[in-house]
Amino acid sequence: MRMLTCGPAPPMLGPLFAPWPGKAPEISSTPQALGRRRFLTYLVAAPALAVGAQLALDAEPAQALPGLPSLADLGDALILAGLPTAHLLVLEVTEAGRVVLQLPRVEVGQGLTTAMAMLVADELDAVLTDVDVPLSPARPELLFAQLTGASNSVRSLYDPVRAAAAAARARLVTAAARRWDLSATGLRTQDSRVIAPDGRSASYGELAVAAAAVLVPAVSTLPRPATQQRLVGQPTGRIDARDIVTGKAKYAGDLDVPGAVPTVVLRPPTVKGTVRSWDGAAARAMPGVLDVLAVPTGIAVLAETFDQALKAKAAVQVSWNPGPLAALSDTDVRAKLRAATAPFVVPPLLSLSLDAEFDFAFVSHAPMEVLTAVADVRPDRAELWFAAQAPIAAQQAIAAVLGLPVGAVKVNVVRAGGSFGRRLFADAAVEAARISQAAGRPVKLMWTRNDDIRHGRVRPASHHRVRATHLLGQVLTYEHRVCTVRTDFGHGLGEALTAAGASLPVGADAFSQVFFDLTQELPYELGVTTQLLTEVPLDIPTGSWRSVYSGLVRVADEVMVDELARTLGRDPVAFRRARLRDAGARAVLDKAAQAGSWGRPMPAGHAQGIAFHSEHRSSVACLVEIDATDPAEPRVTKAVVAADVGRVINPRGLEAQLLGAVTDGISVTLRAGLHLDRGAIREGSYADFHYARQRHSPLAFEAHLMPPSGPPGGAGELGVPAAAAAVANAYARATGTSPRSFPIKH
Amino acid sequence: MPTHQFVLNGKPVTVEAPADMPLLWVLRDKLGVTGPKYGCGVGVCRACTSHLDGEEIQPCVVPVGDCANRQVTTIEGLADGDVLHPVQQAWLDCDVAQCGFCQPGQIMTAVALLRRTACPTDADIDRIENVCRCGTYFRIRQAIKQAADALD
Question: Is B145 on the interface with A (CB under 8 A)?
């Protein structure tokens, strides 16, 4: 049986339809398009309109961290975009006693399934191991409520999941009361059972069918107050840990889809190069080869095993047209970015100024699991299996390339072997769909590691120009001009929003600007502050990389703040503390400084570094110690992180996210970057894309979580900018240098 | 096509494959053993790490022909029925995994390390080359030390 229960009632829709100022929303004639267009209009308009009061009424997260000056951040906008359908969660209690939450998100390692199982178990008084959290296939009716990104999942699901579980509990209790002819208010729930005062009890499984018939529960359907939560906040191991350590966890490439044959694609030497001519005869003659065919991205080879497919791929003869960037190398990209960086407004008159320029290299997402997708395309329908952060957009894209109606394409969402933003794009799934259609058989497409790094998406390279003016020890102005290679937001929300952006007054990169404005905020009082983004369009696949603009902008900020402190003769912690706007932020900084023994004497060549970041209604400070006695081989020896993310569902999972963020910060600051050589990415595996190894990882790590200060904030990306900047600042102090180009060892 | 016999996770298997076919694809595509993961195919990322006669190997670069009449152990063969190997248990206790994709290889590497070195130092652990893109290294280090204590 299935219990369909509801989260919070949909909010009043009036304010959601507020149009972009001076521009009426365009309304299409079809109901579906009308709904989407209206939501789009709202989302884009969110930061521009003073909807804070309405936010505070409708969406709890807006009340977090009082004192933050912004009325809305990106997460608020995403939550509001998803609210109209957020109540469409499906929570099922089976007769076998399983509690099943169909999760409209993907598990990429962030621990979301565990956190959601905890929420359900807590609210429902179920045993944690009775709760299953399978990943929902693409559900187009969810519109914007099926996107895994922007550190938004816990923020957006905390209320509706608890509401669904509370409603289910109320129905189970009511069903038991009817069975025993007792007052429902006298019953209690514990360990997946309803228990009567006289000691009788019934399992949820036994009550499941009767509970489905309860239309009006006899007890409250409201989630319990946080003070009565028993599991939320308890350090809890991942619910899938045993599957992982025994090799049972299945990723897309591990699925046994009948008839799906191993498939690889021969790709051009340059980014987005194309096939001029090709000859697959030699490859076709090789053992096990089932098909060789051209697709827009290269030549696909299908075989009985991946070994045979890889060997045959090497035998395909291709003449390639160079890609659109064939004339460009890193220095050219850097020059373009430098030339396009917006000028400063404030001339350094009558005051002293500190100017700095920063460059960040392209970075690969390089998740451990290479892009993989299984596709079974038939003449009238298609079914796919892959790890999708934006399955609805993927479904639409796949339907479009196949020439099928969206409803004829089923997208099954599979757990991911890491993502870091990569799987917002369904590049491999679209490619697999094309190949399956062309070959007339199911395929299991795997990108090689070379494919992943040389033809995958990249974190856009960026150039930063920062100027601070100061007089008599006071900072008067702070200007940050950032120019990045354009970030592709053409996934899920982004795809729709960038399409809508073309009609917005601010131009083609409207969504980037909206995203930038919603996420980029200097937490310090540094006088008159301006931050401007410009973008250079470059025909290279880009995408959000864990922490998006903050991983660039806020790192440059935090390095600059250290240098300002040094210039003004102030201690970096004291300088930050005096200028942080928010008391909660100061507490986080204090905690990291205290726990990390800020200022303790360090041997020559060693140093501490610290940095702060706030985003997603959360804040974090990171203190690291570095051993740079050999400046060519720096080692972060210790990392101490303090974080305030509001209510923490699973402290153990949160600490894992902070640990991963520290490793990311170490990697992108010190060693991990890509080179573009005449239109081709130089790196091709972890042998030359230097993501941290065990020997680069800290020997000591501490995470300190602040007491709950409100509803959950976002945490998945939070730690990256602070960690990356702390490493840069520590390196600078240990070596007496001023890092300007990242990764430092590139 | 030549036939190869070896012992896989305690059971004899016979498989038809070219002698130069990497063990990884024999395991994954012919025998349906998917615990060892593809991550690079060139022995760098070590996500496929398994054991050959108890020694650490990267099956993506070991030809199946080299495994004839030898013992191949993958992550699936590490536990004793429902009883986890102490290294697997340590991985649970320390909640090491995030995405989990590299962890079968990390665990097999740790088991091999602990066979060679009962009490590995930080320097020994630093020599582990397995990539974890989620950055769980610190918890891996903790889990190896805990497992070393448990095995002691």
Answer: no
| Subunit contact A237:B92, Cβ cutoff 8 A | yes
A272 and A189 together in one domain: no
Alpha helical stretches, state H, A678-718: none
Q: Tell me the per-residue pLDDT of A104-143, one tens digit each, with 9 for 90 and over.
A: 999 999 999 999 999 999 999 999 999 999 999 999 888 7
Instruction: Give the three-class secondary structure for A416.
Output: coil
Query: What is the average per-residue pLDDT within A315-326?
Result: 97
The predicted pLDDT at position A492 comes to 58
Are A463 and A358 in contact by the 8 Å Cβ rule? The answer is yes
Same-domain pairing of A578 and A659 = yes
pLDDT in tens, A679-711: 999 999 999 999 999 999 999 999 999 998 889
Output the domain CATH number for residue A721. 3.30.365.10
* Domain shared by A649 and A628, yes or no: yes
Answer for the pair A420, A233: CB distance below 8 angstroms, yes or no.
no
Q: What are the tens digits of pLDDT across the range A285-302?
A: 999 999 999 999 999 999
In a domain, A145, yes or no: yes
* A548-564 residue pLDDT tens: 999 999 999 999 999 99
How far is residue A714's CA from residue A152's CA, in Å, rounded to a whole number? 6
- Of A421, A446, A471, the position where a domain reaches its end is A446
| Euclidean distance between CA atoms A255 and A444, whole angstroms | 9
Q: How far is A626 from chain B (nearest CA, A)?
A: 16
Q: Looking at beta carbons, which residues of chain B come within 8 Å of A652?
A: 95
A368:B134 CB<8 A = yes
- Same domain for A577 and A527, yes or no, is yes
Helix (H/G/I), strand (E/B), else coil: A614: strand
End-to-end CA distance of chain A: 58
Range of the domain at A403: 252-324+371-446
pLDDT of residue A494: 54
Report the 10 Å Cβ neighbour count for A496: 25
pLDDT given for residue A75 in this prediction: 74
B72 and B118 in a single domain? The answer is no
Test the B interface: residue of A255, A307, A313, A545 with most B CBs within 10 Å:
A307
pTM recorded for the entire structure: 0.91
- The reply to whether B90 and B143 lie within a common domain is yes
Contact at CB, B92 and A245, closer than 8 angstroms? yes
Q: Which residue in A262, A287, A448 is closest to B41 by CB distance?
A: A448
Q: What is the 3-state secondary structure (H, E, C) of A85-115?
A: HHCCCEEEECCCCCEEEEECCCCCCCCHHHH
Question: How many folded domains does chain A comprise?
Answer: 3
- Cβ neighbours of B44 in A, within 8 Å: 685-687
Task: Give the B window 50-69 contacts with A, CB below 8 Å.
Answer: none
How many structural domains is chain B composed of? Answer: 2
Q: Which domain holds residue B31?
A: 3-77
Q: Where are the beta strands (DSSP E) in A182-252?
A: 188-190, 193-195, 201-203
Residue A220 within any structural domain of the chain:
yes
If asked whether residues B21 and B66 sit together in one domain, one would say yes
> In terms of C-beta density within 10 A (0-12 exposed, 13-18 middle, 19 or more buried), how is residue A29 classed?
exposed
